Amino acid sequence: QRLLLALLVRGTVQEQHDPLSDFCRRFAQQTAVVDRKLYIDGGYVNYNPLSQYPANESNNGLLYADLDVDNIGMPQEYDNLTKPADVPDVNGGILWPDTVNKILYLYGGEFSQGSPQPFTSWIYDIIYNTWNKTTPDATQAGIQRASYGGGVTVEDRALGYYYGGWLSNGSVPNWGSEPIALSTFLTYDMLQNTWTNSSGIDSVGRAEGVMVYIPASDRGMLVYFGGLQTPNPNGTVVAQSFEDILLYDIANSKWYTQKATGQIPENRRRFCAGATWAEDKSSYNIYSYGGLAFPEGVGYDDIYILSIPSFTWIKWYPTTADPGFPHHSMSCNVIDGAQMIIMGGTFPNSTACDVPQNYGMHNVDLGEQNAEHKKWLRFRPNITTYEVPAEIISVVGGSATGGATLKAPKTGFDNADLQTYFQRVYSPTTRLPNRPIPTQGSAKNSTSDTRSTPVGAIVGGVVGGFIGAVILAGILFWGLRERGKDRSDGNPPIEEQQADIKLPESVGGHGWTG
């Protein structure tokens, strides 16, 4: 009865505000890409008109943007996926994608409404449109839910990583004290359903920075930078300088630090970033966007590139002293190494909606692969390879396909191991699924009909004890999903060569041409 009531309440809330047609802004969501779909979970939403609905409301649903369906220059978004009421709605968490087994793992975050529940690991099965809890392994004992840490997935090894983050009243039941930044490094093995909570690089707590993966060394490396740290016993929060880059070598399970040079970004937190690399992996280029200023200020609307292994920061956008539209708590998703979709963010000094026709999505052409060498451009599904842009080539040498000549920091590597690691490149092996994966059309996909969703085998000891809740949720929300399906087909695609396409009403002001 309580579950039914909760589902009814959730359905009522969703009917009050349509997540697509009433959209104004979103922020602090967790996102992941699997099979040409960008999934969007949790976070906060502002509805249109903002003057009438100023509250930051919890996003109670799971949505996705189809990268192959155009909506005025951006992927079309859909709201017809299942999310039962007992699945937490969190902000500042992470979705670890298992792209081979078609599963999303939800970890961390602060509860957007109500008191936090004890930590439980949830998964979303993309094939069957169902949410389930994983069976707790003995290694899960003592794991707590952290928020706003640096997280990343190493897909060829099916490992999810999470560094630092906050423990607080929003993430831990009965916390009852000031937030604490963690210094720990969490690893989740998706195939074995096991957790490892190990020490980070030192005992300093860190949060609100980013972590990305690059295929360097023997099994890849993790790169962390930015955000906040608490180096003193009294818990005083200070900035983590963008000059100090933290590196984790996966093969050797060792941490390192490296000083960066160049145009060092101003201190900031709650920004987002994505990594790509030259065809020959002679340079790994991490694009960092926006963020909230620290210790004070409204934030930034800019793009910096950290080029590795030279460890050089390059200011890429804007090229003039333009404050733009500062915002923070957005998400960055690199698509095919060539484009990066920046979604959402909260704007401290603006009350305008964030391109509501595109649901707050903006696209960066990471290699400026367009006639006018523009950085902000409509999303193009056919751009599937990365070209190193001129601004990076002018610093590290080489060409659009690689051949970088600056292969070490100007001040040298801080540890001799790093010089060895960056002389190697990692070519991941193909991982096979360990559960049956239906061929296209052989399983009835949830986006076409969720009333008769089957429950399939789930890896990692996942249990299916919530089938009834899923079916009940499907019945309650069916009418809303049908409206979403009808509405989402209403925008005709733009012509491929159409000129002077301008971004619709936007707080970001990033226009493009065709």
TrEMBL record:
Entry keyword Repeat: yes
InterPro entries xrefs: Gal_Oxase/kelch_b-propeller, Kelch-typ_b-propeller
GO terms, biological process: glucosinolate metabolic process
Transmembrane is among the record's keywords: yes
Source organism superkingdom: Eukaryota
Keywords of this entry: Iron, Membrane, Repeat, Transmembrane, Transmembrane helix
Annotated TM spans: 455-478
Stretches for region Disordered: 429-453, 486-514
PANTHER family assigned to the protein according to its UniProt record, in alphabetical order: KELCH REPEAT PROTEIN (AFU_ORTHOLOGUE AFUA_5G12780)
Name of the protein in question: Kelch repeat protein
Source organism per UniProt: Aspergillus sclerotiicarbonarius (strain CBS 121057 / IBT 28362)
